[in-house]
């Protein structure tokens, strides 16, 4: 539910607080009439502390003004006329207020949205169970942004303390120089006559004692300032670690998991703009604190005072370096994965991105990225930091690419557009493992420095598992390996371990996602369809879905062992159904015309009570990628495959068979399929008659006489009457004789 809709339902003090957010700086009418547009913009993607982000803010300001003007232009009538004037006035007012400082508009709207969300959340939590239904993502984003605000305040506080420390230390050094000057004056008294020395010495001794007492006190004060500053930095770094863990180990890992599931056809993983904005804020805050710690170390070296501060600063410097190293190495990611079924000698692409590249000015000396294919064992050794001696498991052409900085989006990325796997080196296989079960990965690596070569980073990232094939016939088995890995991989696993068996409902979810993606349909697998698949997978006759809830399916059952009495596996059969539906049956599946997942006996039972001519469409049990027509008179035709549908479509074949009258349960066939029939052939041109292919069932065809014309005269025999017998079906080429 939109925040504004809920905000309008606030009452009492909460309503008053909400109303107080608005005024001349941002009228409440603008919030009301543009609520959907305002809540749809990525305000959090703008870094308010970065002046370079002003162009993003300016774009948002221009968009807001344009929306207001559009809204104003569409107002009609007497009331509309007044509103048109008011909205136009607000557009000019906002442009005048924020045109020179668009970041302030973003700050204002972010504050309004955060406050509204908080007020709505508090109200719903206290009033009804609706609070549990609030958008958890919005709450998490608010938590992250609040932590950034705390970090900003902490960093500003330590910056002020550091300046104060520097000022006090500079004054201390001046006073220390004064004490040295007094000491020099006292030393020079030795050359004076005793009378002069006695006259001047007491004053100098008194002055020296005063200065030295002040220096002793001030040295203790400076030491306390240094320790207090170090403790504040420790607190900041603790919050930084917590924030970085939340973003890298939670949000970024979730994005990567969504990316992996998208490889199976799941929802898109979403953009990286918000994640990048968070990572850039982390980088900026870390770098500011690192510079502060280095300045504090410089002050200590400039004026050494005995105490624990040296060890504390060393520890802080080590911690901040670890934090920035973790950030940089974790944000070198693969934005666009290479294909997970990778055929040799075939061009493929991938994109890698450094989320903090722009903020850390890495693009000032653009790094080069190298892509290498490595085996599962090499990937394991790499993650254990074992020396792999730069080994690879194949040769990739065009595997080097320079990272490019895109000013408009602030992204630093490398686009590999024309890679090709020239050859692959396979490892020894284990047991029954086939080549299509062997997993590889593309290793992307680079090196760059930041802060004027202060820190040098070697970054690496691994692609999702890749199965290498050399022929298209291996594609379906390779896809099975990828599907299983994407669906059941655990975050942080050892490459590329997956469970050998999973619960049947887990597998159902995975193949349903895959089916909908491949067929490009919102109509997924129903519970009845999944029961049919369970019966096939487990050789069971139970129709109760509950009987399969706790059953498990092994990888061998999925795609290593053939189904009973067949020469293909469960996955190979299911993949054949997907391919056939995707290429030839998609509109009929979407229309609900294909029951599909029904066995022979079920089809007979369903049709038994129906009138003759009632038929249904079911996927073949005996042939990969086949579909058959079952009806009362014949029960089952031999299956159609892709080869058949390249000759004549399913709809036309159904149209050809006049004995098919009703699609189960009782829908007239023309009502369902007529929109897909091929239009009638045109009349002869230049004396030539176009032949027409039609389908007949021989047993039925030969039982009937040649049809009569409308005047009950027998029509002339066709000049060409060629029967092609295939699967008990005859394709009849008919030439109309006029």
Automatic annotation (TrEMBL):
The keyword Aminoacyl-tRNA synthetase does not apply. GO terms for molecular function: DNA binding; DNA-binding transcription factor activity. It holds the Pfam family STAT_alpha. It is found in: Cytoplasm; Nucleus. Its main location: cytoplasm. Gene3D superfamilies: EF-hand (1.10.238.10), SH2 domain (3.30.505.10), STAT transcription factor, all-alpha domain (1.20.1050.20), STAT transcription factor, DNA-binding domain (2.60.40.630), STAT transcription factor, N-terminal domain (1.10.532.10). This is Signal transducer and activator of transcription.
């Amino acid at each position: 539910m939109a925040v504004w809709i809920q905000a309008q339902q606030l009452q009492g003090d909460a309503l008053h607080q909400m109303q107080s957010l608005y005024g001349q700086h941002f009228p409440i009418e603008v919030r009301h009439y543009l609520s959907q547009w305002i809540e749809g913009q990525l305000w959090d993607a703008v870094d308010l502390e970065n002046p370079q982000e002003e162009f993003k803010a300016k774009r948002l300001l221009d968009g807001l003004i344009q929306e207001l003007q559009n809204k104003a232009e569409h107002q009609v009538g007497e009331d509309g006329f007044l509103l048109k004037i008011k909205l136009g006035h607000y557009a000019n007012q906002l442009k005048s207020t924020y045109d020179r400082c668009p970041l302030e508009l973003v700050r204002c709207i972010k504050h309004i949205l955060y406050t509204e969300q908080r007020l709505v959340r508090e109200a719903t939590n206290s009033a009804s169970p609706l609070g549990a239904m609030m958008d958890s993502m919005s709450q998490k984003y608010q938590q992250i942004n609040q932590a950034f605000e705390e970090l900003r305040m902490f960093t500003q506080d330590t910056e002020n303390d550091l300046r104060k420390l520097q000022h006090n230390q500079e004054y201390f050094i001046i006073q220390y120089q004064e004490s040295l000057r007094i000491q020099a004056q006292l030393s020079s008294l030795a050359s004076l006559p005793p009378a002069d020395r006695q006259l001047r010495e007491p004053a100098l001794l008194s002055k020296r004692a005063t200065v030295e007492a002040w220096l002793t006190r001030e040295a203790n004060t400076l030491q306390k300032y240094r320790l207090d500053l170090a403790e504040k930095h420790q607190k900041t770094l603790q919050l930084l670690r917590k924030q970085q863990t939340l973003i890298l180990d939670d949000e970024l890992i979730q994005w990567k998991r969504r990316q992996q599931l998208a490889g199976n056809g799941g929802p898109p993983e979403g953009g990286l703009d918000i994640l990048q904005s968070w990572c850039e804020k982390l980088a900026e805050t870390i770098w500011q604190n690192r510079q502060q710690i280095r300045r504090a170390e410089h002050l200590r070296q400039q004026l050494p005072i005995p105490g624990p501060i040296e060890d504390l600063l060393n520890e802080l410097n080590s911690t901040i370096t670890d934090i920035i190293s973790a950030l940089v190495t974790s944000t070198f990611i693969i934005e666009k994965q290479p294909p997970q079924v990778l055929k040799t000698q075939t061009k493929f692409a991938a994109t890698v991105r450094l989320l903090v590249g722009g903020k850390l000015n890495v693009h000032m000396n653009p790094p080069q990225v190298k892509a290498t294919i490595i085996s599962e064992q090499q990937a394991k050794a790499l993650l254990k930091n074992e020396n792999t001696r730069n080994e690879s498991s194949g040769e990739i052409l065009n595997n080097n690419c320079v990272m490019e900085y895109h000013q408009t989006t602030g992204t630093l990325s490398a686009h590999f557009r024309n890679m090709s796997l020239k050859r692959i080196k396979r490892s020894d296989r284990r047991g029954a493992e086939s080549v299509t079960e062997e997993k590889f990965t593309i290793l992307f690596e680079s090196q760059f420095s930041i802060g004027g070569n202060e820190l040098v980073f070697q970054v690496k990232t691994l692609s999702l598992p890749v199965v290498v094939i050399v022929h298209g016939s291996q594609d379906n088995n390779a896809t099975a390996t990828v599907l299983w890995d994407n669906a059941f991989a655990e975050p942080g696993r050892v490459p590329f371990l997956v469970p050998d068996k999973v619960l049947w409902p887990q597998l159902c979810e995975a193949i349903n996602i895959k089916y909908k993606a491949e067929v490009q349909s919102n109509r997924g697998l129903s519970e009845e369809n999944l029961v049919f698949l369970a019966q096939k997978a487990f050789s069971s006759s139970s129709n109760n879905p509950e009987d399969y809830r706790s059953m498990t399916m092994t990888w061998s059952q999925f795609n290593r062992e053939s189904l009973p009495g067949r020469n293909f596996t469960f996955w190979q059969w299911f993949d054949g159904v997907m391919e056939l539906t995707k290429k030839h049956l998609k509109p009929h599946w979407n229309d609900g015309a294909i029951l599909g997942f029904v066995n022979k006996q079920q089809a007979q039972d369903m049709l038994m009570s129906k009138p003759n001519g009632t038929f249904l469409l079911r996927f073949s049990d005996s042939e990969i990628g086949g579909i058959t027509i079952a009806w009362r008179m014949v029960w089952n035709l031999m299956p159609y495959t892709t080869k058949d549908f390249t000759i004549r479509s399913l709809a036309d074949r159904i149209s050809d068979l006049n004995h098919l009258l009703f699609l189960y349960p009782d829908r007239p066939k023309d009502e369902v399929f007529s929109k897909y029939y091929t239009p009638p052939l045109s009349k002869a041109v230049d004396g030539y008659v176009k032949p027409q292919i039609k389908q007949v069932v021989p047993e039925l065809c030969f039982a009937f006489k040649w049809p009569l014309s409308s005047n009950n005269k027998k029509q002339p025999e066709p000049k060409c009457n060629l029967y092609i017998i295939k699967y008990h079906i005859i394709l009849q080429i008919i030439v109309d004789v006029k």
